[in-house]
Amino acid sequence: MSSALLAAGTGIGRWEAILIAAAVSACVALLGIWQGARTARQDRQRRLFGEALAAVMEYREYPYIVRRRASDKERSDISRALSGVQGSLNRYIAILTIESRPVGEAYALLVEQTRAVAGPRIAEGWDQRPRAEWADMRVNDVDLSELEPVTQAFIRAARQHLRLFRVRITQRHAVNTFRSLNSTGLGFE
User: Rounded to two decimals, what is the model's pTM?
Assistant: First the structure.
């Protein structure tokens, strides 16, 4: 009876009211499905971006690991593990570029700069003698702080990608971002 009153009061028929209610219900259901799928995708991508950044941070530990080795016998184990990390970095560059071109490009730049800064520190570490004493384990000759701007640029790109409503990054904005990174002395041109 109430649907008849509703239909009579608005000038639409009973079947029209039922069809409108069904259409609204379908739209709400589709919106819920879309939101669930989007949330699952964001969670997967957030995890992927975090794992990729963790691989970079693991690579950054190798200048310290190489310097803290207790004997030259550890050299092959450290080299093998470092090779695995290098492979992970390359794999994440490919995966992130497929997921999102801006995030992939920011990650590739992060990896490039990390290798350019940490790689020579790793090589210098191999030239040092093994440290047999625990007192010798302190490493004071490695500073990777110059990598912070490019790390933050990757994090910003990942956050931008994961936003609900993304704003298109214009070419001008990208150029200004790279200019600001260049002013930090990281050598982007």
Answer: 0.70
The per-residue pLDDT for range 35-48, each reduced to its tens digit, is 776 777 778 889 99
Q: In the chain, what's the furthest Cα-to-Cα distance?
A: 92
For CA atoms 34, 38, 39, 41, give the dihedral sign: positive
pLDDT of residue 185: 56
Task: Give one word for 171, left, alpha or beta, with left for phi > 0 and alpha for psi -120 to 50.
Answer: alpha
Show the tokens assigned to 17. Answer: 């009211």
Which residues does the chain have with pLDDT short of 70? Answer: 1-11, 37, 134-136, 164-189
Domain segments of the chain as ranges: 42-186
Q: What is the pLDDT of residue 129?
A: 87
Q: Compute the distance between CA of residue 174 and CA of residue 171 in angstroms, rounded to an integer.
A: 5
Length of the chain: 189
Using left for φ > 0, alpha for ψ between -120 and 50, and beta otherwise, residue 4 falls in alpha
